[in-house]
Amino acid sequence: MSKNIGGEYHFFRSQPLNIRTLLVTNMLYALILPIIEIFVGAYIMRNTGNSAYVAIYQLCMYSGVLATSILNGLMMRKIKASSLYAFGILLSAVALMAMMFVRSIGIVELGVSGFVLGASTGFFWTNRYLLTLNSTNDENRNYFFGLESFFFSLWSITVPLIVGAFLASVDGLGLFGKVLNVNNGYQIITAFSLLIAFAAVLVLSKGHFENPAQKKFFYTRFHILWRKLLTLAGLKGMVQGFLVTAPAILVMRLVGNEGSLGLIQGIGGLLTAILVYTLGRIAKPEHRMAIFGLGLFVFFLGTLFNAILFSAIGVIVFVLCKVLFQPLHDLAYFPTMMKTIDAVKAIEKRNEYAYILSHEIGLFVGRAFGMGLFISLTYWISEDFALKYALVIVGTIQLLSLPLAKNIIKDIDTNYKTSTKNIKQTDYETDF
Question: Sign (positive/negative) of CA torsion 415, 416, 419, 425?
């Protein structure tokens, strides 16, 4: 056992410095992600009792991601992407802490805090994509995202269990002459998140990263190959919002409290962590679509269980399916996205960030549709109807991702090597 672990460690050490730096940075930031993705929704549910508020918060957060994706492109003309990446990590922890200290939660407070937290994660994700794209190639991206997903899944076990148990036990606890409540527990957790963020930034400073040479980053017309990928991004974004909001809402409504939420998230995490690391280590690029399809099917199956049973058991099955789906989906999706960027960049001779920004726009369109669907069903029909069937609707639509992704890969493998000879840069250029 120790020999195998030692071998994996040596393999990790054999990777280039920037890959190792990004992996350790993301491993640390992954400790904060479950708090952002799971417990913020639970915090809003606890303090408002309104699931539509969770969706509204999430939509404002995604608006912040989009806004800072544009701002980030402008700032990269003067500031290194790695510095903006570090700023996003720190800002997300600060914004998370600030939200937990707000005394009242209404639509305005939710909108502002959601936008600010989204702005911080926008700096994180867009620069993460850019640095990863420039530090990896198609051959080592399975390993990169497999190891990254392993830690994301591992922390999705331990962090929810620890945080859930802590929140469940802190209520009524006496400390320094004061009786604590659950909200005080959230405040303590976010303070620890800030310390972790500082550690991640320190690790990131060890890498050597360069900004793209081109300064233009906004285009309105793209090659057909990238337009297909944007459609795939919209399908991903449509489900992505529910991965954050749905578990917290359903568990708080049908199962119990934050302790239950942490326990359920943790149950399926260990198997998933081992599975995605193994797949990332041994799977070849040609295996991505099988992994992709498996993830889509698992998520769809979970939505059906939730809709049919709509009980504690249904929620448990759905959350377990969600925990398995997310890393499987990302393991196949992100290398496919980056391979497509490599292809269209060779065709159109553009800045990589142009594709990262337009990808965020594609994600936002899907996220807005998904959250809009949930909010509309909640207000027009009922909250129970939305919780049952919004997931089934988006899970069904997302199954279209598999044939679309297969078509994108086929196009790249058969056409893009020769297409640069037949296409003119001016055919697609509209920028500022």
Answer: positive
Domain ranges of the chain: 14-205+214-417
Residue 146 CB contacts under 8 Å (≥ 6 apart), including other chains: 276, 277, 278, 279, 280, 281, 283, 331
Q: What is the pTM of this model?
A: 0.76
pLDDT in tens, 107-143: 777 778 788 888 888 888 889 888 998 888 888 888 8
**CATH of region 14-205+214-417:** 1.20.1250.20
User: Which pLDDT tens digit goes with each residue over 193-226?
Assistant: 889 999 999 999 988 888 776 667 777 788 899 9
